[in-house]
UniProtKB/TrEMBL annotation:
<dbReference type="GO" id="GO:0009113">
    <property type="term" value="P:purine nucleobase biosynthetic process"/>
</dbReference>
<protein>
    <recommendedName>
        <fullName>Phosphoribosylamine--glycine ligase</fullName>
        <ecNumber>6.3.4.13</ecNumber>
    </recommendedName>
</protein>
<dbReference type="GO" id="GO:0046872">
    <property type="term" value="F:metal ion binding"/>
</dbReference>
<dbReference type="InterPro" id="IPR000115">
    <property type="entry name" value="PRibGlycinamide_synth"/>
</dbReference>
<keyword id="KW-0658">Purine biosynthesis</keyword>
<comment type="similarity">
    <text>Belongs to the GARS family.</text>
</comment>
<dbReference type="InterPro" id="IPR020562">
    <property type="entry name" value="PRibGlycinamide_synth_N"/>
</dbReference>
<dbReference type="InterPro" id="IPR013815">
    <property type="entry name" value="ATP_grasp_subdomain_1"/>
</dbReference>
<comment type="pathway">
    <text>Purine metabolism; IMP biosynthesis via de novo pathway; N(1)-(5-phospho-D-ribosyl)glycinamide from 5-phospho-alpha-D-ribose 1-diphosphate: step 2/2.</text>
</comment>
<dbReference type="GO" id="GO:0004637">
    <property type="term" value="F:phosphoribosylamine-glycine ligase activity"/>
</dbReference>
<dbReference type="Pfam" id="PF02844">
    <property type="entry name" value="GARS_N"/>
</dbReference>
<dbReference type="InterPro" id="IPR020561">
    <property type="entry name" value="PRibGlycinamid_synth_ATP-grasp"/>
</dbReference>
<dbReference type="GO" id="GO:0006189">
    <property type="term" value="P:'de novo' IMP biosynthetic process"/>
</dbReference>
<dbReference type="GO" id="GO:0005524">
    <property type="term" value="F:ATP binding"/>
</dbReference>
<dbReference type="InterPro" id="IPR020559">
    <property type="entry name" value="PRibGlycinamide_synth_CS"/>
</dbReference>
<keyword id="KW-0479">Metal-binding</keyword>
<dbReference type="InterPro" id="IPR016185">
    <property type="entry name" value="PreATP-grasp_dom_sf"/>
</dbReference>
Amino acid sequence: MKVLVVGGGGREHAICEAVSRSKQVDKIYCAPGNGGIAELAECVPITPMEFDKLVSFAKEKEIDLTIIGMDDPLVGGIVDVFEAEGLRVFGPRKNAAILEGSKAFSKDLMKKYGIPTAAYETFDDPQAALEYLENAKFPIVLKADGLALGKGVLICQNLEEARDGVREIMEDKKFGDAGNHMVIEEFMTGREVSVLSFVDGKTYKLMSSAQDHKRAGDGDTGLNTGGMGNFSPSPFYTKEVDEFCRKNIYGKTVEAMAAEGREFKGVIFFGLMLTPDGPKVLEYNARFGDPEAQVVLPRLKTDIIDVMNACIDGRLDEIDMDFEDKAAVCVVLASDGYPVSYEKGKLITGLDNFKGKDGYYCFHAGTKATADGIVTNGGRVLGITAKGDTLAEARAKAYEATQWVDFENKYMRHDIGKAIDDAKEV
């Protein structure tokens, strides 16, 4: 088989690594890819939103399967374009990717089908939103309706912050057109857990629980980012939580999308909050999480090509998914100043230290290959991942491995996975 992966971040590197383990695959292409992906795949200089060029490339190279990693092309309808040309592609169609593309849609879906989530209201007029806030309970959460690179969520502690937030999102358009509409919802407390699942339109198969660290600074301080690290599985995702979510969230979501005429095939990322009142949905994503993919996919023992083909063909119920009984921790190495402003083009040293190291991974996110070597090319540069028999062991190994590589202005959080110290099973 020849496989094309669309995207160029750490998530796509993790997808390429999983695909490279398939005995069915002879050749991997990645568009546009990055400096690390180039070791597994032939990188193609086409951006994810150039649908026509991607279709032409897939036809020219006789690609057997295209895997869409990123949210923007999915929400933009890339799967519909590929299918219209008779090309095999993994990911939800445009009318299903709206599950992530519009927070207002997903909140309304949850309300209609009785899926537990935070109380909310939606707004398309900033003045109406400001008036609503006058009698709101704080803290409160403001969300840009559309895609905002994982950063379109503001937690406001008081009325003044919330007013500023409405202006940022809806008037100043800090997140672009994503802020044309806005969701204001109650602030939920509890542990955050992410659960990834493969879906074929009617059947879902869970991958693993994970826990992200969104804030830029230690102790969950600073601005929201695309994710500064992750660990999997989450010790807080208990058997009782799993049973509740299977009964009230996962299957209900898949059934709700089908009932709405929006059959979902691909990956649904369930962002959950384990509140005192039980698990509730924080958000949905219509693709692998980043960096969740970096701690989940390395543990997947089943051939990922078999799973994806089963999703496309509606026969996921025939697949027995198997994961290593291991834990994994990912620590993101970022450029200092991320997510606001940072320099690019800094030479990365020590990458060869990962070669031949079983259970260690250096997933490239914002990197670029140059004549001088691999250089930084984004805010999140590398995802250093390690597996272990326990979360504590995986965490120690991941932090050890962060010292194997270096670049100017290297920055990371030092408390990724610290929450596992609070859990009974470490």
